[in-house]
Design a protein that fits this description.
By secondary structure, the chain is of the alpha/beta class. It is about 35% helix and about 20% strand. It contains eight helices and nine strands. The protein has helices at about 20-25, 65-75, 95-100, 120-125, 140-150, 165, 200-220, 220-230; strands at about 1-5, 30-35, 50, 60, 80-90, 105-110, 130, 185, 190. The strands form three sheets. The chain has a five-stranded parallel sheet with strand order 2-1-6-5-7. α7 crosses α8.
């Protein structure tokens, strides 16, 4: 999979891809991540990529020309399945989005900044708009890193145990059940006996019941969604 991230602050995105699962996925050649400096595509003397908004108002706007230059250059070399724009008013990122994106071959992620991008970029280039929550960040780089992490870990070969991702929260609209590890007793706090029984069917049943219980308690909205589909 190829992920090209267009940003005005590529240094902000260097660290997330130099550690842990994301780093290993790149080293294995499973995913290729390119950080593309939008300023390289500016025709302005000072490499400016923003300007005042028509009609007035506070804040600057990312201009269309450098973005169009960048995306057109990338599209001349590769075919892209999605061109994603990280923005607070996009669709809220969820597990289904990550599952979908992880099946694609090539994507572009455009990191928003300032008051956003010229609307013509959204109308003519962007195929999907994604938000990581109902709040505003200084820029789209952190959102892009979150999105990439959610996508890349689902690609076959990235995790040592590929079944691990299948049991994550939200994969089936339920939260994951509680998990325990050694020691079986600590400070007189004991691991549930069922998990020590070795009886796989009973353990699976217990985990499913706990998943239902936790979802109903903590995310009744998800629980209602699950119940309506089953």
């Amino acid at each position: 999979m190829r992920i090209d991230i267009i940003t005005i602050h590529p240094q902000l995105l260097e660290s997330p891809f130099q550690h842990s699962i994301l780093k290993r996925s790149i080293e294995k050649g499973i995913v290729e991540v390119n950080l593309i400096n939008l300023r390289d595509y500016s025709t302005q003397k000072q490499k400016q990529v923003d300007d005042y908004a028509f009609g007035g108002g506070a804040g600057m706007v990312m201009t269309i020309e450098p973005i169009a230059n960048c995306i057109n250059d990338l599209k001349s070399k590769n075919n892209y399945d999605e061109i994603i724009y990280t923005t607070p008013d996009g669709e809220t990122l969820n597990q289904k989005h990550c599952n979908h994106f992880s099946t694609l071959n090539n994507i572009i992620i455009l990191c928003g900044h300032y008051k956003g991008v010229d609307e013509r970029v959204r109308e003519h280039f962007i195929t999907k708009e994604i938000s990581i929550g109902d709040y505003v960040l200084s820029g789209g780089e952190l959102a892009a890193a979150v999105l990439c992490d959610g996508i890349i870990r689902l690609i076959p070969g990235v995790l040592n145990d590929e079944t691990s991702a299948l049991s994550d929260s939200f994969q089936d609209d339920l939260l994951a059940p509680p998990v325990y590890s050694r020691p079986a007793e600590y400070n007189n706090w004991k691991v549930p006996e069922i998990l020590l029984s070795g009886h796989s069917a009973n353990i699976d049943k217990w985990r499913f019941e706990k998943s239902l219980e936790r979802t109903q308690q903590r995310r009744p909205d998800l629980f209602d969604k699950y119940k309506s589909g089953h």
